[in-house]
Task: structure prediction
Amino acid sequence: MSTSRTGLERPVAPNPYDLLPATASFTLTSDDVTDGAPLQDEQVAAHGNTSPQLSWSGAPEGTRSYVVTCFDPDAPTPSGFWHWCLVDLPADVTSLDAGAASRPLPGSAFHVRNDGGEKGFMGAAPPPGDQPHRYFFVVHAVGEDSLGVDEDASPTVVSFNLAFKTLGRAILHGTYQH
Result:
């Protein structure tokens, strides 16, 4: 006999970056995201759907490119939800303005499709009534000019490649509950 669940009660997922191989860290700041605090309306899908301003410094020596991601480990799926995956950002770029995900990108940078199906940023959109979700904005320092994936790669394939090519990682996370 099968029982039907109407709620989304479940344990809080671990910080996914604690489960990856250790790497150097560097500094990530934002005018739009305060670490551990609720996201602004601009970063919510139903309101602004705008990628946040991000700035970083102190990347490890040998950094030749960056990958910028936003991941929600609290989505009610076994694999979380990728909201943003920007690949092959040139090493001389150390900040992104708010809304950069919807503008032309520098150098050979490109987006892969997020889990909402778009190439760009998708704002926070947890199910109504669900637990607070965490949105991990991460800048990954890469020791190669290219991560070696193309725009048809999934964010999971990008993340898999990062496991072998990341020199350092800078992390901020915001929260949102509908």
